[in-house]
Amino acid sequence: MREKIIVITKKLFSFFIAEAFVVFLLVFSINNFIGTTDTSINADGIGYYDYLPATFIHGDIHRKDWVISNADSLEYTRVNSVGCYNNYENNSKVNKYSVGTAILQAPFFFYTLASISQDRSKLNGYEKEFQRTIFHSALFYLFLTLIFFREILILHKVNKWLIFSLQILLVLGTTLSHYVHIDAAYSHVYSLFVFSILIYLSQLYFLEYSVKSFYLICIALGFITIIRPVNVIVFLFIPFMANDYDNLKQGVIRIFKSPKTPFIGLVLFLSIVLIQSYFWYIQTGDWFVYSYREEGFNFGKPELFNVLFSYEKGLFIYTPVLLFSLLGLIQFLINKQYYKLITWILPMFFVFYITSSWWCWNYGASFGMRPLIEYY
Questions:
Q1: How do residues 229-239 score in pLDDT, each as one tens digit?
Q2: pLDDT tens digit sequence for 301-316
Q3: What's the predicted TM-score (pTM) here?
Q4: Bridge partners for 94 per DSSP
Q5: CA count, 13 A, side-chain hemisphere, 82
Q6: What is the pLDDT of residues 7-26, one digit of tens each?
C-alpha cells in the first residue's frame, strides 16, 4: 500500500511539476525583485471579498429588513466605511460587486477564520492573516489555470516545451502577476480560471459530444456570470472552439436532440446565477438589482483606440507580448481557415467594443487593461 501511495505521489508530482515551477518563479520574483506587500485586498477587491466578512464575521449582509431611517446610524457604520456599497432605491445599500469571487475565496477564508487565535468578536476580516490567505487563494487558482491551459494546448497537440514557455509568458509576461499579488482580491485571476475550464470543456464537447460536458459548460458559464456579469459574453467564443462549421452544427444538433438537455443546462446555469440574486435579496429585498447604479456603458462613444494603445492603460502597451498572438490570424489566412478567423475576430471585436464602452474606459486605479486579463 505504501509503495502504491509513493508511486501515485510521484506521478502527481511529475504531472504538475511544470505548473508548480512557474508559480515558484512568480513567488521568487515577488520576494526578490518585485517586492512583497502587506495588503492584497484593495480597492475593487474589497467589494468582491467583503461578502465573506459581512456574512461570517459581522453578520451585516442581511439588511433588507433594516429600518430605512437608520441608513446612517450605527447599524450601517461598517457598511458605510468599506466603500463598496452603493445606495439603492429604497435607501438600503447594496454591494456594488458580484459574489462569485468570494465563493472561490471562501475555502481559504474559512481555513484562516478557523485557525486564527484572536477573539472572533474583535476580527474585521481584513487582518494580515486574511490579507495573506487571499494572496494564497490567487496563487492556487493561478496554479489550476496553468493546468487547464496546458490541457487545452495538449488537445491541439502543442509541443510540451512550447506549452511551458507559454505558461511562463502568461504569468511573467503579462499584467496577470499584478492581480495575483498586489490586487489579489480582484476578480480577474478567478475569471481566468473559470474561463480556462469553459474553454477546455467546450473543446472536449466538440470532440466527444458528451452531454455531461455540456452540463459542466453551463455550470462554468454560471460561475463566470456571478464573478463578473459582463463576462457572460465569453459564450460567443464557443463556435471558435468547434474548429469548423460542421462540428459546430453537429454539436448544436446533439444538444437539442433531446428537449430535456437544453432545459437541464438552463436550470444548471440559472441555479448558479440565482446565488447572486439571493445576495441581492437579503441586502435590498429585491431579487434583481443593477448594483452599479449611475455607472454604465456609453455604447455611442467607445474608447477603442485608448483601450488597445493608450499609454494610460492600453492593452498592447502594457502587455505587448499579446501582439505576437495576433500572428495566429495570419496563419489562419495562409491556411485558408476562414471559419477560425471569423469566429475569433467577431467575438473579440465585440469584447473590445464592450470593454471600451464602459463610462470609465481606463477602469480606475489599476495596472494595465485589467478587464481583458480573463481573455488572455
A1: 999 999 999 99
A2: 999 999 999 999 999 9
A3: 0.94
A4: 86
A5: 28
A6: 555 555 567 999 999 999 99
